[in-house]
Specification:
It contains eleven helices and five strands; from the N terminus they run ααααβββαββαααααα. The protein has 252 residues and is mostly helical. The protein has a three-stranded antiparallel β-sheet with strand order 1-2-3, with no helix packed on it. A two-stranded antiparallel ribbon has the order 4-5.
């Protein structure tokens, strides 16, 4: 209670908005994935085949990391805890489907684990990105997202939690993003970006909670409140009659 009272006093005194991760939207995700697709070709300037393979593997890993993180709405620490044994690809109705399982998540207080089912997509597909990465890196068991050294060797250990943000920002810069812009994103940006995307597509708070794994309705409500699509929609409806009226007067 004393600490809560102290924090309340500090917030009242400094009156600063809570610092939140910048959402990585679908448009930014698409640009990053497309940039990473072109990056290996740009790396042909390297004379060493080892360096070339290192770039190719890093790009494949990063594409899978970003796409899985976005479509699952995962935190960075959840991505690096994914094990190959808990990722199964099946064919359903002629389409590949990726079934994922995490033994525990941050909001899983009973340690029941959580399942995700991702269907193959025509574009920005997490299923194909995952398969491209694990096949190229020969990953059949253990951590899915591992470090790649400068000689193109894949570690057997997962990426360290303290290296997630650096890996993400390096991938963004490799894809063509400006360093200053990449600095504005964090390991939580994929989760926030998906939440905003789902809301813009008409998902309800309960649907978002079920998919992302939130237990408290207040968390989903915070995203609904912070989403700007409603504001933009109302603003466009308000401006459109004014523009039309001005156009009619000008024509007259």
């Amino acid at each position: 209670p004393e600490i809560k009272a102290m924090m309340k006093g500090l917030r009242s005194h400094y009156q600063k908005a809570p610092k939140k991760a910048r959402p990585l939207g679908f448009g930014e995700l698409k640009s990053i994935v497309e940039g990473l697709h072109c990056a290996p070709g740009q790396a042909l300037v390297f004379k060493s085949q080892e360096h070339q393979r290192a770039v190719e593997l890093s790009c494949l890993r990063d594409k899978a990391f970003f796409l899985l993180g976005f479509w699952c709405g995962w935190r960075g620490d959840e991505l690096i805890r994914l094990q190959a044994e808990n990722a199964k690809v099946m064919v359903e109705n002629g389409r590949r489907v990726l079934h994922l399982y995490l033994p525990y998540t941050k909001g899983d207080r009973e340690a029941e684990g959580a399942h995700w089912r991702l269907v193959e997509l025509p574009q920005q597909c997490p299923v194909n990105a995952y398969l491209d990465w694990v096949e190229a890196a020969y990953i059949k068991e253990g951590p899915v997202f591992c470090a790649v050294n400068r000689w193109g060797q894949v570690s057997e250990k997962a990426i360290h939690s303290k290296s997630i943000i650096k890996m993400m920002r390096d991938a963004m810069i490799r894809s063509g993003m400006e360093p200053q812009e990449a600095e504005s994103y964090s390991s939580h940006s994929l989760r926030r970006g998906f939440a905003n995307f789902a809301i813009e597509q008409g998902a309800s708070a309960q649907e978002l909670m079920d998919w992302v794994g939130w237990k408290e309705i207040s968390t989903a409500i915070a995203y609904l409140k912070s989403n700007q699509s409603l504001h933009q929609s109302l603003l466009s409806k308000a401006i459109m009659p004014i523009d039309q009226e001005g156009l009619e007067k000008g024509d007259a």
